[in-house]
Structure formats: structure tokens, C-alpha cells
């Protein structure tokens, strides 16, 4: 279980409790909440692998930077007695979505769109959607590397 799984689970729990407290409703079948979760598409490797490449003089073979894709992550509104049930549901959903082709597709589409149109046009829809519509963006960029 990662920190981001807990973050998504806690957000789902908070939204669920807020919704049920404010509305008093018991049915959430018509509610569809989604979040954008940024995901690094690079395989997790140890820091020692990169250190060995740099020491051997093959630092040009190291591909620096992040390769970001994103997934549209649904929030499930439900009332659970166990607070960890939200985290378990979030982990199951995030793992399923991360293993799909959605992450790779959005990464490659973003790269090709950036190459064709440039940075200003690439960032315009992102900035417009962040400030003009209520949405949530969670980050899954930082990875822990074991040495």
C-alpha cells in the first residue's frame, strides 16, 4: 500500500462522509466523481543502477526526467464501518487502472501533442480546466527508491 493509495482512500472517505451528512441520501448510483491521478510510467529501478551507469561513463544512456501519464480515477461514495475499507477499495481501483493501457496511452499522446504544438498550447487546456471547473488532481509522481 503506497502513500497515494492512502491519500485516495482518505479523499474518498471524506467525500463520502461529507455527501451523506449534507444530503441525507442513501443512494449514490447517479453520482459520478472522478479525479486525475498522475502516474510515472517508468519502471521502478534502484538508485544504484543509475549510479553504476554514471560511474561507468554511460551517463548518456540514462533517460532523465519523468514520463508522466494519467488515469481518470473514479471515487466510490459509500459508507463503510471500517475506515481501512476505503483504502482497500482505492488500492484495488488504482492498481487495476495503473495496469491498464490508459497510462501509457496518455503519456504517449501527451508527448506527441507536446512535440506537434509546443508547450504553450500543451498547457492551455490543463490550466483552463484547473481554474474553470471543480476537479481534483492527486499526484503519484514521487517514487521511493531502495538502495
TrEMBL record:
A Pfam family per the record: WS_DGAT_C
Cellular component annotations (GO), alphabetically ordered: plasma membrane
O-acyltransferase WSD1 C-terminal domain boundaries: 64-132
GO molecular function, one term: O-acyltransferase activity
BP GO terms, sorted: triglyceride biosynthetic process
First and last residue of the signal peptide: none
Name the record gives this protein: O-acyltransferase WSD1 C-terminal domain-containing protein
Species for this entry: Aegilops tauschii subsp. strangulata
Lineage: Eukaryota, Viridiplantae, Streptophyta, Embryophyta, Tracheophyta
Amino acid at each position: 500500500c503506497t502513500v497515494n493509495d492512502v491519500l485516495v482512500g482518505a479523499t474518498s472517505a471524506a467525500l463520502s462522509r461529507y455527501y451523506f451528512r449534507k444530503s441525507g441520501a442513501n443512494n449514490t448510483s447517479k453520482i459520478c466523481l472522478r479525479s486525475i491521478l498522475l502516474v510515472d510510467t517508468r519502471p521502478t529501478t534502484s538508485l544504484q543502477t543509475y549510479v553504476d551507469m554514471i560511474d561507468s561513463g554511460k551517463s548518456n544512456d540514462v533517460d532523465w526526467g519523468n514520463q508522466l501519464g494519467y488515469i481518470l480515477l473514479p471515487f466510490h461514495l459509500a459508507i463503510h464501518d471500517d475506515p481501512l475499507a476505503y483504502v482497500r477499495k482505492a488500492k484495488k481501483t488504482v492498481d487495476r487502472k495503473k495496469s491498464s493501457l490508459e497510462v501509457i496511452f496518455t503519456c504517449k499522446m501527451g508527448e506527441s501533442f507536446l512535440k506537434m504544438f509546443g508547450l504553450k498550447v500543451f498547457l492551455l487546456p490543463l490550466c483552463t480546466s484547473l481554474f474553470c471547473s471543480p476537479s481534483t488532481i492527486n499526484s503519484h509522481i514521487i517514487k521511493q527508491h531502495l538502495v
